[in-house]
Amino acid sequence: MSWGRGIWRKPAPARIGPLREDVQDLPAWPFVVAYAAYLLWWVLGSGDLMWSFFAIIMLVLMLGRSGLRFPPGTIIWTLFLAWVLASMSMLDSGGRVIGALYRFSLQLAPGIFAVYAYNARQTLSVRVIVGTMWGFLTSTTIGGFIAMAWPELRFKTLMYYLVPKPLHANDFVREFTRRATTQWNPSSWILSDPRPSAPFIYSNTYGNVYSMIFPLALIFAYVLWRERSKYRFIVAGVCALSVIPAAATLNRGMYIGLMVIVTWVGFQRLRAGAWRTVLGIFAALVVGVFAWLATPASKSLFDRVQESSSTEDRASNYLETITELAESPFLGFGAPRPSASSWLPSLGTQGQFWTVIFSYGLVGVTLFIFFFVRMFPRIWRAKDVYGSILGGIILATMVEQFYYGMNTGLMVSVVAVALLSRHLEEESDPLRAAAAQAGRPTPGSVAGTVRSARPVRLGEWGSPAANDGAFSTQMLARLNRSGRRGTSNRQASSSDRPSQTEDK
């Protein structure tokens, strides 16, 4: 296959016209509230169910809008969802049907969110997106500190009183009706400290989500700092404080995911010639590692690695999963099932990959992985900070899927796929590039985040990011041209025992 054809082909320029104007004005509030108010949804007992609720709102808002476009990969994700429905024919109990429908809703919702964010380019500017992820980080951080302050806190949520009492005996339902701030088993044969999980059910969900949203929140903090916003100290302070509860979760996989993103961003900035940025990343890593080694969190993590048998248990669980899959290799079993060994967690848990392959078979896991793998050429092209972070999130997803359940994490990684495609479309616009070479402001650079010096009318600029953001041009120069020398006309780059679900 030619490098200039198929998925390797450079994305076509984004088009603006009368049919696009309507869909670009989709309201931002469903997207913002769903992420930023996550702590509230956890307290109410709805938690991840709110993703489906806001997805329905987004569907209603998109109905009747002219010019709706679908991001690359939508067909693949749709085929994956269709196969999930087909695999439900293998379910053998009512309890598993409830869990299967819940997982299906958490696979349908990110696709809807992705389509919504891909189209709402006027209202969901990159500034709004990274600010929303900072809000999500804030909810996560507050929940983490609550867990550290009250590790034994247990409480009944609003869902407890709304759900019929006969359903309270179901393990799945009980997770929503009764909340705990930590993942901790005081009767475990291996003594360990409580691990913060709030505002999520599992500590590993905390680590998975944190590894993906923290880099995006840092962009928001950097932008406000460069703009000397009066809120910059609050935003930066939350980012700094978030490290404390994140480290307390003792998530080995979280560090792996963060390293994948940091390494990729550094590599892409090196390809772009931004030496100062790369040196800054390296210096920050060195300081961060030494600071972490000086904290009790490092000792706790090393002790957990030495005492925990989770690695061996996972290996046994994975082997049994593959063995049982031979009975239904194509459709899978529709949902996880108990292991033949009573001390092991259910088969089809302990990682998104294992959930997908056991529940939906070889066809399902192939579609799931291909959805992300097909983005590799686009990941390679995005060399700016924002684009490389989105690419790093996708790469981290491909790594973390083997040890993290990603019901909540998919709400970030699948949306990142759409946002990266949107970013490359905006940056590949030849009209925008020509205007930049002529010395005019460059709306849409750094993933469409810079607002021009004067308002840009619809139709005047070819890129849908023309009215995007409110990022200063000075920030653009510092963020995307850092470390470049010898150029006069610089331009932005174009582009303990594992739980029943997971434990890392």
Mean pLDDT: 79
Distance between the termini: 40 Å
The portion of residues assigned to helices is 55-70%
- Which sequence of strands runs across the widest sheet? 1-2
Total beta strands: 4
The percent range for strand residues is under 5%
Which stretches of 5+ consecutive residues score pLDDT under 50? Answer: 1-19, 428-435, 437-473, 483-504
* Overall 3D form: globular
Largest sheet composition? 2 strands, antiparallel
Determine Rg (CA atoms, Å): 23 Å
What is the overall number of helices? 23
Order of helical and strand elements: HHHHHHHEHHEEEHHHHHHHHHHHHHH
In short:
This protein has 504 residues and is an all-alpha fold. It is built from 23 helices and four strands. The strands form two sheets. The chain has a two-stranded antiparallel sheet with strand order 1-2. Strands 3-4 form a two-stranded antiparallel ribbon.
Task: Write up what this structure looks like.
With 504 residues, this protein is mainly α. It has a domain at 16-308 and 374-431. It has helices spanning 18-24, 29-36, 38-44, 49-62, 74-87, 94-119, 126-149, 158-162, 171-177, 203-226, 232-241, 243-248, 252-271, 275-293, 296-307, 310-325, 352-373, 376-381, 385-400, 410-427, 430-437, 445-448, 473-480, and strands spanning 154-156, 178-180, 182-183, 195-196. The strands form 2 sheets. Strands 1-2 form a two-stranded antiparallel sheet. It has a two-stranded antiparallel ribbon with strand order 3-4. Helix 5 (74-87) runs antiparallel to helix 17 (352-373) and helix 16 (310-325) packs across helix 17.
